[in-house]
Amino acid sequence: MERLSLPTSLINQIDLARVLRELNELNDFFAQAKIRNSGISMQMPKLSRILDQLARDNKINLLDEADRTRLNTGLLSINKTAPRMHLSFATEPSFKALEKLIIWLRQNIHQHSLVQVGLQPAIAGGCVLRTTNKVFDMSMRRGLKKQESYLTKLIKGAADER
To answer: Which pLDDT score is estimated for 124?
Structure first.
């Protein structure tokens, strides 16, 4: 099976789980439609933008059972193997900034990268990236801590000149 392309709106594990649940609901709908008496109207579940975009990007017909099965298998595989990262910011990032970050990660790190975003106001600025085995602290707080002795020396020198 070819690799699925994830839309940038599918950001984290929660989005992936939601799409899988929605796909299962769609499968249930078609299974029930097969066994129902003809003439009884049924309301097809409404598709989310993420599932609709995922199907469009991967040329998948959600009305076709084989395509839905292929999509489900691919998403389950991604759920097991996708690299997961946690990014902490001082404030909530805009969707545009997050989208650019996801695009970069999927082009440069792994095409199925999933990112959980969190808030940590104590970092002041920048971000902290955690993977399963590493932490990359790119925060302003860490930068200032690294330069603490130099900053103290500068401030002390400025105070002494007065």
So the answer is: 80
Q: Where are the beta strands (DSSP E) in 6-157?
A: 84-89, 114-119, 126-130, 135-139
Give the residue-averaged pLDDT of 101-124: 92
Cα 142 from Cα 10, distance rounded (Å)? 31
Extract the runs of DSSP E, i.e. beta strands, from 1-113: 84-89
What residue type is assigned to position 10 of the chain? L
Rounded mean pLDDT of 75-97?
93
Residue pair 3/76 in contact (Cβ under 8 Å)? The answer is no
pLDDT of 1 over the 90 cut: no
Q: What is the CA radius of gyration of the chain?
A: 23
| 115 Cβ neighbours under 8 A, 6+ residues apart | 11, 12, 84, 85, 86, 87, 98, 101, 102, 105
